[in-house]
Design brief:
- This protein is of the alpha/beta class.
- The protein folds into three domains: 205 residues, FAD/NAD(P)-binding domain (3-Layer(bba) Sandwich); 97 residues; 60 residues, no CATH class.
- The chain contains 14 helices and 18 strands.
- Strands 1, 2, 8, 9, 10, 11, 17 and 18 form an eight-stranded mixed β-sheet that branches. The chain has a seven-stranded mixed β-sheet with strand order 6-5-13-14-15-12-16, sandwiched between helices.
- Strand 9 and strand 10 form a beta hairpin.
- It starts with a strand and ends with a helix.
- Bound molecules: flavin-adenine dinucleotide.
- The site of flavin-adenine dinucleotide has 36 residues, from helix 1, strand 3, strand 9, strand 12 and strand 16.
Length: 408
Amino acid sequence: MEFEVLVVGGGPAGSYSAARSSALGLRTALIEEHTEAGRPQQCAGLVNPDIFHFEMMDRLSNHVILKEIFGADIFSPSGLILPLKGSGVKALTIDRAEFDKELLRLAARCGTKVFTGQRVTSVRKRPGRGWEVSSKGREGGIHLECDLLLGCDGPASLVRRCAGMEPPKETITGISVETEVVDGAVPHDKVGVYTGKETARGFFAWAIPSFGRSCIRIGASSIDPRGLVKGFTNLLKDRRLARFLSLPDGQDIKYGETSVTLGPIPMGSPANIVGKDVVILGDSAGMAKPTSGGGIYPLLRAVDLFISTLGASAGLSQTSLDKFEKDWRKGYGRELERAFIARKILSDITDDETDMMLERLSRKGTLEMINDEGDIDHPMTLAVSLIRTDPGLFMLLPRFIPHLKKVL
Ligand SMILES: Cc1cc2nc3c(=O)[nH]c(=O)nc-3n(C[C@H](O)[C@H](O)[C@H](O)COP(=O)(O)OP(=O)(O)OC[C@H]3O[C@@H](n4cnc5c(N)ncnc54)[C@H](O)[C@@H]3O)c2cc1C
């Protein structure tokens, strides 16, 4: 079978690329190893409301949205709280499995030929133009050929390897549980964020309201994979989490049925995301935000730019693929690069320094600025405004001053 565009992977990057490519009139196929999209779920499901403003994303039904989030309580290691609250909706909690399913349905409705339950096992360059791809499934294998190959096959991308591209710069591990809390009240409009090396060294842990009135997603990510499970276990008993759930002092948190997932979060774009007749997108290209691990907004933004570039040019020429890569790196890709550097710099911040920093950020004028300008997908824009308004923030941690130029 011969297609103009072949997408490997039916996660959000793959399904959205396939939907947009089909809508552009390109003969498109998508191949996914699982029989069902969205499983296993490896996500805390917190997204920027703007994701529904990308072209065609308003066609997803409202029931994928679980909660509207207006703010966050950021807990310092010693228990200080930076209470963030904007006037509008700052984020949404989504049913991630349903989100993935809806996106794959959207691709099929737009005309994509979808093959599920087929694991791609071989990816070879054709002499001259295009690629050939073979897969295996329970009912037997298939063989597909295409002019353009899109590697949307996640962190361990086979397409990336076969195209000779480098992996993302860094992969950290995240652990997340979906659970019901027996006592206490799950805030329905804010999330909890927990810092500290005993919980999530170099990154953070979270509590995010999900289904109904008592379900919550609790998770953590850390640059120290060996300490992650211990940190996460500490979090489940943490007084700061009990406070977030309004439990009285001394009362332990009791959990109902719990499902656990563990997954990699690749970040830091490799040197190339475009090769000869091939493009990698989403986790395969390390597009998650280095400051939060959120991958969905950046990948939708990348796909949107990619398809707009194809639509505006002469179609599938190598020139338009190269133009996409150039424009990505000059635009949002640059925000991700700066965030990557910033996170590297901040990853060895001590617990005392985090306490000091959060105390400083909770001062009136600064807090107002964060509440007005804060956007989970543009952290560097806010960070730069904060440092410009209050350079003393950086002076708090003088050893970081030499790095200031790289971030700004
Ligand atoms: C613990 C955790 C929490 C997270 N929380 C958030 C969050 O709150 N918000 C957010 O925005 N992001 C979050 N992320 C990141 C987000 O989940 C990813 O960035 C996103 O899933 C990337 O989408 P993708 O389509 O690139 O890859 P994936 O979702 O990994 O999809 C890749 C697809 O390719 C398929 N595939 C792989 N290999 C093959 C093959 N050989 N043949 C056929 N199919 C194949 C896979 O089955 C899969 O369906 C989190 C990640 C983790 C681990």
